[in-house]
Design brief:
By secondary structure, this protein is mainly alpha-helical. The protein contains three helices and no strands.
């Protein structure tokens, strides 16, 4: 059995790579759940506001426009985060597979990017609602 292993085989290093690969898989799955929640929230905002307006027989366009814009913003943010998560996951797997000495590489957090996007959506929604209430 040991004859099949390459001379540079290190069991601890291989197990560490496998742990890092499993961690990358868990991280991707967490991002999939987060992105699915963002996309679902975007669809939900639009559907609920449209249903409420139809039930009340109101034709006010301002809340409907805001709900569509917010819904699209959440869908776009969820889709962007999903694409970025897949790209980062593939890069991480490639790095784990080919790196001889696996070293930490600092990079901008995808979570930070999504948080900034959510702050932007929140500021936009707050401003839109404030302007429509004051007008």
């Amino acid at each position: 059995m040991t004859e099949d292993l390459p001379k540079s085989y290190n069991m601890q290093a291989e197990l560490a790579r496998e742990r890092n690969r499993a961690a990358a898989e868990r991280t991707l799955m967490a991002w999939i759940r987060t992105c699915l929640a963002l996309i679902s929230f975007g669809f939900g905002i639009n559907s609920i506001v449209s249903a409420v307006l139809i039930a009340q027989n109101k034709s006010a366009q301002s809340p409907l426009v805001l709900s569509r814009v917010l819904g699209l913003a959440f869908i776009a943010l969820g889709t962007y985060a999903m694409v970025q998560a897949v790209i980062e996951h593939r890069q991480e797997l490639r790095y784990i597979q080919h790196a001889v000495n696996y070293l930490y590489r600092p990079r901008t957090s995808l979570g930070l990017k999504v948080a900034v996007g959510l702050i932007g959506i929140g500021i936009f929604a707050f401003t839109w609602i404030l302007i429509s209430v004051l007008a």
